[in-house]
Amino acid sequence: MSVTLEFLAGKPYPLGATLQNEGVNFAVFSAHATKIELCLFDASGHSEIARLAMLKGEEHVWHGFIKGAKAGMLYGFRAHGPYMPELGQRFNANKLLIDPYSKALHGEFRWSNLHSVELSEPLLNANFINNSDSASDTPKSKVVSLAKYTGQKPHIPWSKTVIYECHVKGATARHPGITPQKQGTFLGLSEPAFITHLKSLGVTTIELLPCHHFISERFLTDKGLKNYWGYNTLSFFAPHSDYLVNDNIAEFQTMVSRFHQAGIEVILDVVYNHTAEGNHLGPTLSWRGLDNLTYYRLDTANPRHYINDTGCGNTININHPRVLQLILDSLRYWVEVMGVDGFRFDLAPILGRQYSGFKSRHAFFQSINQDPILSQVKLIAEPWDIGPGGYQLGGFPIAWREWNDKYRDTMRRFWRGDLGLLPEFAQRLHGSNDLFEHNGRGPLASINFITAHDGFTLADLVMYQDKHNLQNGENNQDGHSENLSANYGVEGPSEDVQINALRLRQQKNFLLTLILSQGVPMFAAGSELGHTQQGNNNAYCQDNEINWLNFKESTVCNELSPFIRKLIELRDRFFVYKKLNYLHHNDVDFHLTWLSTSGIAMTAEDWTNHQNQQLGYFIEPRAHIKSQEVLLVLFNASDKTQFFTLPTRQNIKQWQLCLTTLAVNESHTHYSSSDIIAVAAKSCWILSAVIQETPHGTL
């Protein structure tokens, strides 16, 4: 059935579907199409009711205006042009295309051969073209309009930021305090029961795994699995529809507003490095069908194939100004309309890679730096990909923060008991100045973490020596084989009381080290609950209880949640963690001393002693600092109790024990200067003291 509509020329800006007083304006970019049709669908999305030829205006923007059209209209595009994959051209008007600027999607994506243009590798130079219409299995773009976000944002400084990395569904899919209808959704995540949990921990910022609409790869659905993490983007603007309760994208705004009212920031993990269209045999869903030559980086020697710096089949061509615009427009939308406070960029080197390699002055970084909106939000890079020169830890611009995997690996090895790590342990604890200070950044450039969504959970890190990924259907070949983990005598769960006590103590050691390191601490959701993935270190495809958190009361939960809270309170209590610059020997605000077990400064021999696994971290404020409280942290990663002599200072009379990682803190909570204390095997102690003024009022 077709309908008669008044279709006018419209305007080339803004891109996407824009609701106006008298109708809807549509605009889409394609430099190489010969014709683009706007296709309209009935309310069910099943029947195509009109095809309207769009006008090609200046700068390769096709546009049109439907008078009288309203919010809720469903549409898509069909792009005509040459199909010459050997030259990078992949037009096929039989494939319905999602608007790259669509703010909402309607209907489920279903895998079928309808989406493929090439069903198999072409033989010789003969192209086998699949001309089946794909509309029935393709989500439709939906005309929506949201007002800009008006809530009050927390604006938490980096010096006070503590990040909780979280999956929207997994956090509440079986939370007993959230109604079943809202479990696993944006609204469920912002229910009082979960927000209260976050506040009880003391975290300031929630970092959500991908919330852009995504789909599962075909090889997963063929095995009965799903892409759970969400790193397979279908739209850079539309929220993932499975996380909506009533198919209303305003629910995302509501979630953000509730977090903000509770004083919690929202950061999105975003994927602008590749799309769900995959490699040259993948589905034609949007960008590929609109202008393959523009949106993707192609192999110059064989343009049929894609550059695959992502390991996901294709790579976005951010060097093209229109693709750069698409990403920047998307980022601004999520800040201005949806209200988020920042972004963590997946495989971020791709966003700064020119054909000559990664550049910290790439147009992407410069565009954000000068943007009045984006320059004011939190920016975090995952500083690696699999492309040439893909490891760029420390190489990002000054305003950026970076996931620090060297911190992760060093801390895992140190507490596992590896030898010869003391100098690097101290450097990572102190903020990794070797990585970030070269361009004027301070310790807060380092996002410190022990575990994240990718890899073992904190509980599994001390419970499994090897990965156990058979449920992923890849014969345990996927995921990293070296996890720098230990099982302490039993692989997996144990009924041995001593083993379980050691495992709990090691989790506390990791958490204490993380939260009291210089830099920005981030821990993965479930760390406070003892969450296990049963040894699966690549649980990206497990949409089940392997990933869903269990909030039922447990001994581990009762131990770790208040422990994290206490650590965050201690971090907030000591002024040194608010310092923006690295603390060196001549620092005007604090004096740092690395202590040996004898209570005096470490010597060169102490640092180079391969067997040494003990260290004291002693920070004294200078006289002008408001709080004259001294911090002392004692680390013992060895398998034996070590005796530490507390440092002797004329202006310190008494030490107070703040916290240990032992099951029960020592009953003796006050110590005199130069006392000797026994620090148990694989444990940490935190002590404090108040500097007493000398008779002359100086130190």
TrEMBL record:
Keywords: Glycosidase, Hydrolase. The keyword Hydrolase applies. It comes from the Bacteria. GO terms for molecular function: amylo-alpha-1,6-glucosidase activity. SMART domains: Aamy. Pfam families: Alpha-amylase, CBM_48. GO terms for biological process: glycogen catabolic process. CDD domains: AmyAc_Glg_debranch (cd11326), E_set_GDE_Isoamylase_N (cd02856). Residues 177-571 form the Glycosyl hydrolase family 13 catalytic domain. NCBIfam families: glgX_debranch. Belongs to the glycosyl hydrolase 13 family. This is Glycogen operon protein.
